[in-house]
Amino acid sequence: MFRSFAVSASLIALAAPALAQSPLEQALSASADGPLYAFDLTLSSDEVDALMRVDPSQPEGERLSVISPEPEDWSEDFAKRVENMKANTDGEIWCQDFAENIPAADAKLVSETDTTATYSFRPKPGAEPDDMDKVYKHLIGKVVVDKTAPGILNYEMVAEKPFKPMPVATIKQFEMKVACDRAPDGRTHVASLDVTVEGSAMMKSFSQSDRQLISNLTPIPNSGTGSR
Of the candidates 153, 189, 159, 157, which has an alpha carbon nearest to the alpha carbon of residue 176? Predict the structure, then answer.
């Protein structure tokens, strides 16, 4: 009898850490593994509406193609942006990638329903150097996670007040809002990304708003279970 009780107690002790995980911790530890997908990328900005196709199975620099508008209708700024996107597009669309910027231990539960939990946090830099690293300290983040099937459902970062990322520039408004959707394999991917930035640099004001939509996910045959 005592032996049976000891075994039961050991099993309970082993299970306790898993049971004690918060919905946020469960979401942040969800697997990122799965097949690769090609997808449509719709870009809407102040200057252009464009439709692109991304195929991460293609060689670096050839993964993104512009379906519309036609090249002869591109502005110089859009041509530069396409060039930059082609050089940097890898097909990573997974909301799980935001996990590295969320400090689970310091995040605060804001609200909760039967199926979701919402947390606020101060974003932290990820493992790899990023252009945003100097900006995170000026932002407040919010994330909505799924309690029934762990994963990130929404993610946003907003500047609390104007800030200077560098001596010659001031950001008056910064907002990044991401809505996620389920891919066929169950992982959550970026479905929409909205970014608004307003400020001034070198005595000149600027304002930019971008909306990107990801749709028409198509599994790439024999792509294995890579994190993309």
Answer: 157
Rounded CA-CA distance 182/39 in Å is 14
Distance between CA atoms of residues 223 and 187, nearest Å: 16
Distance from CA of residue 189 to its chain's centroid?
8
At 7-66, the pLDDT tens digits run 454 444 444 454 568 999 999 999 889 999 999 999 999 889 999 999 999 999 999 999
pTM of the shown model: 0.85
Tens-place pLDDT, residues 181-205: 999 999 999 999 999 999 999 889 9
Which residue in 160, 213, 176 sits closest to 40, CA to CA? Answer: 213
Q: Where are the domains of the chain?
A: 2-219
DSSP notation for 185-209? TS-EEEEEEEEEEEEEETTEEEEEE
